[in-house]
Amino acid sequence: MAIADLNIYNLVHLQPIPPDWPGGFWWHWLFFTVVIIGFVLTMVMGVIYIERRGMGRMQSRLGPNRTGPFGLLQPVADAVKVLLKENIVPDAADKLVHWLAPVIAFAPALMIFTVIPFQNGALLADLNIGILYIVAISSVSTVGIFMAGWGSSNKYSLLGAMRNVAAIVSYEIPLVLAIVGVVLIAGSLSLNQIVVAQGIPFILLQPLGFLLFFAAGCAEINRSPFDLMEADSEIVAGFHTEYSGMKFAMFYLVEYAEAVAISAIIATLFLGGWRGPLLPPWLWFVIKVIIVFFVMVWTRTTLPRLRIDQLMAFAWKFLFPMSLLNLFITALQVLAGWPTELWWLMVMVNIAITATMVLIWSKFFFKLGRGRIEV
């Protein structure tokens, strides 16, 4: 009976929504534009609350608990406080570049959700090059951050922006190579088709690819332990040192919108996206996004911040060769035509390969001793 119910569920929820739903091109465009904006803003407030409460628990304190029931309105209070602050622009700043930078940094974080499915076919545009579009559009936010560093006419801001550019260039390669492994198995660049192809979540077929994408993604969006672009102890606050008021709020919004975007991409590529039993597909998608973000919070409270030389070495000495090996092994498995009946054997083989490779490569490039880790 349970299997019959599950089959009925799959028949209902694996049916794609028509591409012009709910009625024509413009209604489709208007509906999903409103949904994407509402989803991103709601999720940003939600993950800020989860991060602050979660970090509080992990650090043996309560976290925000006074503003609203259980402190739920704390993100709203923070937003109101920041928006009411005075907008200060340095005299020596390039005014136009200083004003445009947060807008250019924020737009790509929102546009990523154009091709991410909330349900089968429930997305603004099902591009057949969807993942390639994400790789291209996400790089544009780097331009906004560099503009903030340059336009502020502050050496700490410029230093933070240059660190960000160096990190993006270094980590983009292993991130893209990790994506290629998923594309090889799914046989499509469309994110909706990648989710449909996940009879087994790709985190099991691509465990090393998942680890590579997670680490590279956290580095690209400036999440701890890769957050030295705005390291307070070294360069004040990095690229947004000279920002205040609404423009600072936009950079704050960008930081968490990118975290939600990376979590959504990981949920789509490796965790089966909207697929799951019993619950509505969109709810499964939201649950998986929150789980991925919680892992980011966990690593933030656990791992110390890297130095700039360690950041570069980790990308080029560890992630890059590992991503090449992962791509090579995946290509061999795809060419060999592994039978779908033996996928679970492939899962065990890939997990064993991942554990072995990470252990061996760690021995090559990480030296532990005297309380320090040298890369």
Describe the structure.
By secondary structure, this protein is an all-alpha fold. The protein has 15 helices and two strands. A hairpin with a 2-residue loop joins strand 1 (367-369) and strand 2. Helix 2 (25-58) runs parallel beside helix 13 (281-302), helix 10 packs antiparallel against helix 12 (245-270) and helix 12 crosses helix 13 (281-302). The longest helix has 34 residues, at 25-58. The radius of gyration is 22 Å and the shape is globular. The model has no long low-confidence stretch (mean pLDDT 82).
Supply the key terms.
375 residues; mainly alpha; two-stranded antiparallel ribbon; 15 helices; globular
Major sheet description: 2 strands, antiparallel
For the secondary structure, the number of strands is: 2
- Strand arrangement within the widest β-sheet reads 1-2
String of helices and strands: HHHHHHHHHHHHHHHEE
* Basic shape: globular
Q: Average pLDDT, to the nearest integer? A: 82
> Residue ranges: pLDDT <50 for 5 or more in a row?
none
Structural class, please?
mainly alpha
List the helices and strands and how they pair.
Layout: H1 2-13, H2 25-58, H3 74-83, H4 95-111, H5 130-138, H6 140-151, H7 155-186, H8 191-196, H9 202-205, H10 207-220, H11 232-235, H12 245-270, H13 281-302, H14 308-336, H15 343-365, E1 367-369, E2 372-374
Antiparallel strand pairs: 1-2
Entry summary:
Helix content is 68%, strand content 2%. The protein has helices at residues 2-13, 25-58, 74-83, 95-111, 130-138, 140-151, 155-186, 191-196, 202-205, 207-220, 232-235, 245-270, 281-302, 308-336, 343-365, and strands spanning 367-369, 372-374.
